[in-house]
Amino acid sequence: MKPLEFWFEFASTYSYVAAMRIEELCREGGVELVWKPFMLGPIFALQGWNDSHFNLNERRGSYMWRDLERLTDKFGLPWRKPSRFPRPTSNPARVAAAFAREPWIGDFVRRVYVANFGEDREIDEPEVLATLLAECGRPATTVQAALADERRALLRANTERAIALGIFGAPNCVVGSELFWGEEALGDAIEWARR
Amino acid sequence: MKPLEFWFEFASTYSYVAAMRIEELCREGGVELVWKPFMLGPIFALQGWNDSHFNLNERRGSYMWRDLERLTDKFGLPWRKPSRFPRPTSNPARVAAAFAREPWIGDFVRRVYVANFGEDREIDEPEVLATLLAECGRPATTVQAALADERRALLRANTERAIALGIFGAPNCVVGSELFWGEEALGDAIEWARR
């Protein structure tokens, strides 16, 4: 059975809904999960965008905000429309990239997402991250360790790999050479991993 | 229980996958289905596009073509990548708008989609439409009846209504005041109609 790489961006609303569910779905399906944080900014720039397409395209954005209300209600997830969108997210992404294989990473990722989309908190601030890490039982030094120069390269490498994979948005699942985009594709991606 | 309006465009690949399944899904769910053909061109123009975004955005387009191979395989639907995309579709859309409430409309819509995406045929040509209508047991005069001036307004009115509904792509389901976009949202839309 092939592992499933979950490619996500902490600023992405649909990544939130997917990230809250992916670990349980993989466990139920018996599929190995690999967390892959990356940055959407450079990938949007490749498509000629200097902002989220949900801000650039009002019709598309209006739909997304209503859809998120429905989806978070459907899955019983906290929801408060963020006062800032998209939020800076490079620091939590660096933490996630640096500790992607740690057993507490899923817990951390979900706490960051709830802070962003359920509590409207500034998840890029190191104090906020230290609080969230403490809730995962990690020492405050974890933030500094992730932001050290030698670890920053991990997130950059992920983003470069995402570009090479043809990724254009978030979230995504990658199984072997197959890319599955969108929150709705989790089930198909898990089926593919089980083939 | 609220009826479900299925808003589709014959040039849209994801509308194909959804259109092939929607009638059966509604029947299974006990939901009344209303066929709503419209034109995406004016709606793309509102978003500043002079072509399908799958052509304008190469990363997005590459993904869609692979995704369609997977989805048509998953649902057992015919698939041949069309030699022309997007195809002109106003004539089949006029027929569907003119006869949207006829009992043969679902059969006709599916035959047009299979001709476009399973057989690479020019579905805007009246002779092709006459052949497809004959397969539905309809006389050849059906095309001319749909293209008459007094009936053309039906498709234009649908497109104007789609704009007013906030539609930005296809396919869509509209249930009451709720819009559900995308092939993956059919299940949620049917659940909404049953609430």
Strand order of the largest sheet of chain A: 2-1-3-4
The name CATH uses for the topology of chain A is Glutaredoxin
**Largest interface, with Cβ-Cβ < 8 Å?**
A-B, 21 and 21 residues
Helix fraction of chain A, binned, reads 55-70%
Global morphology of chain A: globular
Write down the secondary-structure element order of chain A.
EHEHHHHHHHHEEH
Strand content of chain A: 5-15%
What keyword list fits this structure?
homodimer; 195 residues; alpha+beta; Glutaredoxin; 10 helices; 55% helix
What does this protein look like?
The structure is a homodimer of 195-residue chains. By secondary structure, chain A is of the alpha+beta class. Chain A has a single domain (4-193), classed as Glutaredoxin. Chain A contains ten helices and four strands. In chain A, strands 2-1-3-4 form a four-stranded mixed β-sheet, with helices on both faces. In chain A, β3 (172-175) and β4 (178-181) form a beta hairpin. In chain A, α1 (13-29) packs antiparallel against α6, α5 (90-98) crosses α8 and α5 packs across α9. The longest helix of chain A has 18 residues, at 58-75. The model of chain A has no long low-confidence stretch (mean pLDDT 96). The interface between A and B is medium-sized, with 21 and 21 residues.
